[in-house]
Amino acid sequence: MAYSGDPILVEELLYRPVHSLIDQSLHAKLGGFTTNGDGVGIGWYGDRAEPAVYKSTHPAWNDRDLREIASQIRTPLLFAHIRASSGTPVQRSNCHPFRHGRWLWMHNGSLAEFGTLKRDLVMAVDPALYPQIEGSTDTETLFFLALTFGLEDDPPTAVARAVALVEEVGHRHGVAYPVHMTVATTDGESIWVFRYSSEGETSSLYYSTDVAQVRQLHPELEALQQLGPDTRFVVSEPLRELPGAWHEVPDGSWGLVHRDKGEIHPFQPLVRV
Amino acid sequence: MAYSGDPILVEELLYRPVHSLIDQSLHAKLGGFTTNGDGVGIGWYGDRAEPAVYKSTHPAWNDRDLREIASQIRTPLLFAHIRASSGTPVQRSNCHPFRHGRWLWMHNGSLAEFGTLKRDLVMAVDPALYPQIEGSTDTETLFFLALTFGLEDDPPTAVARAVALVEEVGHRHGVAYPVHMTVATTDGESIWVFRYSSEGETSSLYYSTDVAQVRQLHPELEALQQLGPDTRFVVSEPLRELPGAWHEVPDGSWGLVHRDKGEIHPFQPLVRV
Amino acid sequence: MAYSGDPILVEELLYRPVHSLIDQSLHAKLGGFTTNGDGVGIGWYGDRAEPAVYKSTHPAWNDRDLREIASQIRTPLLFAHIRASSGTPVQRSNCHPFRHGRWLWMHNGSLAEFGTLKRDLVMAVDPALYPQIEGSTDTETLFFLALTFGLEDDPPTAVARAVALVEEVGHRHGVAYPVHMTVATTDGESIWVFRYSSEGETSSLYYSTDVAQVRQLHPELEALQQLGPDTRFVVSEPLRELPGAWHEVPDGSWGLVHRDKGEIHPFQPLVRV
Amino acid sequence: MAYSGDPILVEELLYRPVHSLIDQSLHAKLGGFTTNGDGVGIGWYGDRAEPAVYKSTHPAWNDRDLREIASQIRTPLLFAHIRASSGTPVQRSNCHPFRHGRWLWMHNGSLAEFGTLKRDLVMAVDPALYPQIEGSTDTETLFFLALTFGLEDDPPTAVARAVALVEEVGHRHGVAYPVHMTVATTDGESIWVFRYSSEGETSSLYYSTDVAQVRQLHPELEALQQLGPDTRFVVSEPLRELPGAWHEVPDGSWGLVHRDKGEIHPFQPLVRV
Q1: Which member of B35, B85, B89 has the closest CB to residue A37?
Q2: Is C92 on the interface with B (CB under 8 A)?
Q3: Which of C58, C86, C94 should we substitute to test contact with D (largest number of D Cβ atoms within 10 Å)?
Q4: D271 in a domain, yes or no?
Q5: Taking CB atoms and an 8 Å cut-off, how many pairs form between chains A and B?
Q6: Terminal CA-CA length for chain B
Q7: Residues in chain B closer than 8 A to C118 (CB atoms)
Q8: Which residues of B touch D47 (CB under 8 A)?
Q9: pTM
Q10: What ipTM is given for this predicted complex?
Q11: What are the Glutamine amidotransferase type-2 domain coordinates in residue numbering (chains A, B, C, D) (predicted)?
């Protein structure tokens, strides 16, 4: 889940909505896994340009410290993620969101047969960036490929090039559909989201547009009553069912969320010539 | 899950059966909770009279060390438990099985409104035993009440008296149905099981009788092929569906498993006069 | 360590001073233990009356999330504690500071032969408060005894009565010197500290008075340059050696820190008649 | 610490000797770090060719499960390690000993400026082995380089070549003294140890020869009384001071421990021509 808008208490976002992210860690309805109990992480922006992250290997639903921190942190931009490991170890350095400078990155999905592709992918990461890779996930590798291809200057192009590389390496190793990706990334001001998979059947991704509609959704969120029209949510699963309030990010597209701006564009891998 | 019989590799019991305990931690079908990810624990007997225990607060499905240990430990008697907390903190001292001397104790269920009853219950524990209570669960308290009432000499009577006390204290505090209990306890030689609740709708509990039938159930468990007729399982949920091979422990009864002996008796709380 | 004054970034307090609390977790010079690696905890006040707490069982020096949170939290009052267990389990519910409503409580020291005294002490806790005891430490029990005796209304008297009770119970059980205590407690506005032991040889406790002197101590703490004269530290060990800037809280006394007020008074147990 | 000999209860090795490995985690006298509280790990051989490993990120001295397991595991060969991180995250996948097939590997020391050298070193690992690297330590990288150079066939040569490569890469990046190494590795039958550093001032490494002498050292270890002449210890720090019983592995040498065989040879990096 990603939130952008007026500063809001993290607790309001994680614990209040009917089908909150904490609930989703127990009973995700739409994901490939029914339990996302392999870790939780949040990233948020405060006084500094660089965000802070809190990550834990314990399931979100029983993490006391997450609840404590959420009750005290007010932020205009939050990334929250619950993890179901696709094979790599459950450890803090493998929890999302990943951070680099001002940027956060999180991912729902996987790179197929990552073990086979990993060496070639990691070698394509800028050698100056390589030492900063801390964990062993496909997500972090994809992040660093995007950084290598200029994420900080032009996110859509960078991600398109990174995905093209993964598909190229994948095909070279006989993997038919290497990429399954819903990604959210941010520099603290704007949020870019991507929904694409090689096979064309990607995990769900939704965004909200009109906060007035979200307020109708969540009368119990008193805090939202004071929020302005800039409030935006991007979620893997809707926080509550309400026809019309949640718009699907179409498969094979990318989106930009910034203040009053909300754009969707087609996305396709950018193959090197 | 409890196992008694010829020494067997713990890995065979935890990871091999189709609906293994590890799977149950993800998708328990019959329990009140669909995910039991608040900890895991095993107790086993080796060279000594006192058993060893391994407990972890991480969900069973991602605990690497549990897998490692299971691959190396061979034991004639194993207790294994996956936890779904009914409110008390997730910490190692609140994981089952609990141990006292040669005895192990684990529990599926809860004592209603335990916070309200706790002080009176804990005060009824033998003052000499009281300092040994390490955690904060209702299960551990019930264990120490049973120990107070002579578990080490006459388990059925001790448990009957403990349950009677909980119901008495519960009623005194206006709790209609204080006890919901399926308990397994052992001294390393025999296993006693109890299935009882104040309301009469207790969580499931099954036992196996004829190992020949269990072998039919689990052709993939090669280790079982060498086992003799003493093999017994007691489980919350059947390891695999096979009509006739799993017998339900009737609600309101206790059972004894010892070598070739398997008995079921009615159980009711033993009120003090 | 306790801090009171203008809002300050927690990171400045925990990680900057030469002999910071994080360093002390590795190399405490004056304490009975040379390594305090059995857990860390902080409590801080923000928008609400009730403080938030972050606690971890990992040693302070390698806890990444503590660093992250510290970089983002600004607070006018901070309690920070590193733990060396005197026997009870290392678990989050046994880390300091303990919280009750608006109050925080932390402790350096121990109650002798606590296992022997525990039952009698716990029984003296107000039954209405008893269910809120989460862990198994002597510190938490002492806190709840103080709450029972009116900590929220008159802290010095409440602590004096609690200590008297512990000594009485201790003597009854043949323990000569039951109490070894340096305690800090706060309601978010004032901080009370206590330094007392039955034997008269209590762990160290220091306070700072004049912030101008502390600024001379810590030129590297730029943040302190902006702080007003209300800044107060209470520490187990001086953050840096500078004769005259750290005043010892005399053994057998209690102190009050509130804005510009700083008082020391004699402390002795208040025996019931 | 490494042990080889008749099967012994792990508890006897870890918790009994006066300056046991558990004590060393608190107060290492000879190491560069005074506290080794960033994790603990043991590897041991049982029924299978492949060893099992138990690893934890908690300090050795407060790890309850380690104590439990140690009380039940009997093994003829044990590797035990306590970690002081040289910068990489504290996580289970970064704890020693590392395992590959039948082999275990542990290391005291570091590769200087590892972040700078890492990419080149990792690229020299056999691509077929590369996906098996789980963590981010210099130790694991060195292990996989040794495996790449034929550790399983000729350990001394493999390690010599791996060290030569690290020095070459190091010098290329302007690192004067890239290697500081005391390594122990085993296939379950023999133990090879290496003590070498680029600068010539390596951490300590000792071995025992005559078990009769070790028995004189440790009268309190009753279990040792039954052990035969094959008992061998290799330790970073002597388990107890006793002149003559502990022999230093000279700096710049490698040793082989196998049953009644104990050899020391000079070690130097094997540069590719």
Answers
A1: B35
A2: yes
A3: C58
A4: no
A5: 33
A6: 35
A7: 130-131
A8: 72, 74
A9: 0.89
A10: 0.86
A11: 1-273
Residue partners of B243: CB distance under 8 A and separation at least 6: none
CB contact under 8 A, A34 and B26: yes
* Widest pairwise Cα distance in chain B: 53
Q: B219-243, pLDDT tens digit by residue? A: 776 666 666 777 888 988 876 666 6
d(Cα B44, Cα B49) in Å, to the nearest integer?
Answer: 10
Q: Is C58 on the interface with A (CB under 8 A)?
A: no
Q: What is the pLDDT of residues A219-247, one digit of tens each?
A: 776 666 766 777 888 988 876 666 667 88
Cross-chain CB nearest to D69 (options B54, B71, B92): B54
pLDDT of residue A19: 65
Task: Answer whether residue B272 is part of any domain.
Answer: no
Q: How many domains does the structure of chain D reveal?
A: 1
In chain C, which residue ranges form alpha helices assigned H by DSSP?
10-15, 21-27, 64-70, 114-123, 138-148, 155-172, 211-217, 222-225
In a mutagenesis test of the C interface, which of B119, B125, B129, B141 is the best target, namely the one with the most C β-carbons within 10 Å? B119
**pLDDT at D173 (0 to 100):** 96
**Minimum-distance CB partner of B35 among A26, A38, A90:** A26
**CATH number reported for the structural domain that contains residue B24 in this entry:** 3.60.20.10
Alpha helices in chain A (DSSP H): 10-15, 21-27, 64-70, 114-123, 138-148, 155-172, 211-217, 222-225
Q: Which chain A residues contact residue C44 at CB under 8 A?
A: 72
- What phi and psi, each to the nearest 5 degrees, are found at residue B70? -60, -30
Q: How far apart are the first and last CA of chain A?
A: 35
Residues of chain B with pLDDT under 70: 17-19, 21-35, 214, 221-227, 239-244, 273
Task: Please give the pLDDT value at position A221.
Answer: 65
**Residue-number span of the structural domain to which B56 is assigned:** 2-266
Chain C residue with Cα closest to D36: C26
Whether residues A37 and B27 touch (CB distance < 8 A) is answered with no
- Could you tell me if residue C271 is inside a domain? no
pLDDT band of residue D224 (cuts 50, 70, 90) is low
- Chain B residues with beta carbon closer than 8 angstroms to that of A62: 37-38, 85, 90
Residues from chain B that touch D74, judged by Cβ atoms under 8 A, are: 47
Work out the widest C-alpha separation in chain C, in whole angstroms.
53
Across the range C43-53, mean pLDDT stands at 93
| B:C CB pairs within 8 Å | 39
Residue D166 and residue A207: Cα distance in Å, rounded? 50
- Euclidean distance between CA atoms D233 and D245, whole angstroms: 11
A53 within some domain: yes
Considering CB atoms only, which of D92, D123, D131 is closest to A91? D92
* DSSP sequence for chain B: -EEEEEEEEHHHHHTSSTT-HHHHHHH-SSSS-S---S-EEEEE--SSSSPEEEEESS-GGG-HHHHHHHTT-EEEEEEEEE---SSS--SGGGSSPEEETTEEEEEEEEETTHHHHHHHHHHTS-TTTGGG--S--HHHHHHHHHHHTTTTT-HHHHHHHHHHHHHHHHHHTT-S--EEEEEEEE-SS-EEEEEEETTS-PPP-EEE--HHHHHHH-TT-HHHHT--TT-EEEESS-SS--TTTEEEPPTTEEEEEETTEEEEEE-------
